[in-house]
Amino acid sequence: EVQLMESGGALVQSGGSLTLSCAASGFTFDDYAMAWVRQPPGKGLEWVSAISWNGGVSYYGESLDSRFIASRDNAKNTVYLQMNSLKPEDTAVYYCNLRVGLKDYWGQGTQVTVSS
Fold it and tell me: Which among 36, 17, 21 is positioned nearest to 95, based on CA atoms?
C-alpha cells in the first residue's frame, strides 16, 4: 500500500524559511519522480515542484521565483521541499504526490502559514 506522509509545516513569518519532508513507503521509491502540490485557502490545487527519480532534474512552478528547492534521499525514501523567502501567498496545505500511470497518490498534507 502506497503511503505518503508529509511533515514540517508550521507558522512562519514572511521572509522566513521552512523545509517540508515527505516520507514514502509501499512502493519502490527510486523508480519514480515525485511532486509537491499545494492548495491555498479557498483555492484549487497548484503544482509546486517535481523531482526526477534520482534527484538529478527538478522543475518548479513559475510563480515561485526560484525560492523553493526540491531534493530527495532515496536511502531514506524521503523527498524534501526547502522553501526560502516565504511570502504570505505561500500559505497553503502542501501535499506530496506520486503518479503511477493514471493514478495519483496523495499524503494527508501539511499546513504552511506565512504571516505578514
Answer: 36
Question: 74-91: per-residue pLDDT in tens?
Answer: 999 999 999 999 999 999
Tell me the HSE value of 96 on the side-chain side, using a 13 A CA sphere: 30
pLDDT by residue (tens digit) across 29-53? 999 999 999 999 999 999 999 999 9
Q: Can you spell out the DSSP letters for 55-111? A: SS-EEE-GGGTT-EEEEEETTTTEEEEEE-S--GGG-EEEEEEEEETTEEEE---EE
Q: Are 36 and 19 in contact (CB under 8 A)?
A: no
Whether 78 and 70 have beta carbons less than 8 Å apart is answered as: no
